[in-house]
Amino acid sequence: MRLFLSLPFLLIFFSLKSQTIVTLPLSDSEFCQGAGLRVPFAISGPFSTDNVYTAQISDSNGDFSEPTGIGFVYGFHPDTIDAAIPETMATGIGYRIRVVSSAPNVEGIDNGIDLSIIEKPVVTLQTIDSLCLGDFPFDLAGGFPVGGFYSGPGVDAGAFNPTTAGLGFHQITYSYTAPNGCVGTGVDTVFVADCTLIIKKEEMASRIKISPNPAKDQIQVENGGLEIKAIAILTINGQVLSKKAVSGKNSVHTVSMKNLQPGMYLIVIEIGDERLVEKIVVK
Does the pTM exceed 0.90? Predict the structure, then answer.
């Protein structure tokens, strides 16, 4: 059986010790998995200027024998810690939160009432992979559970507009609020391409060979019998990083990748008046 003591009594009792920490009442007694919260606390006595105050949460029985840190703050005399409930914390109704210090090592008194951790919904999103710049807006779908809403570049009232979003990769977020009030999110990526650059792509792609991909220092482009005029490297947003003219007589062309940061890029291969655009990865 737990002993419930009033906050004034606890403050008076702990003021008799050299250093004390008392966790003050929280804004709520029910929190979703992954939720952020502010942990207010009061201290008395001298603490070191390099002290770290850490907010800890107990297990679902209020036991702090193996606590989980949920936030910390440095400072000489702070009064609040910005914390977050772990996404993976098990649901339960008997949690407590306390604040501890490092210099000196003081274990503070907990918040004084049981806290509930409630389940955050599992949310997924799988939408269209790619669109052409200039395509008509389309209504987003693929978010589960149904009943949520979409957000991100080029998204308005649940519809994605490729022209508004612009070229490149765009992260779309689907948010869903469960009946218990907890919010979950799912994300997916849509690629918007300038399809005027991709002429006869299937035919050319079957003949042009790009290797290695992923690449590190350089890539090689085999022309497959086609006359390549130029090779350009672009960011995923269409910014030209390098471009060089090449001799159509050579069957293999080498392109340096040494100055590029790891990530995804576009390679544009000019063949006559046509262009082949492919994604490449630098590792």
Answer: no
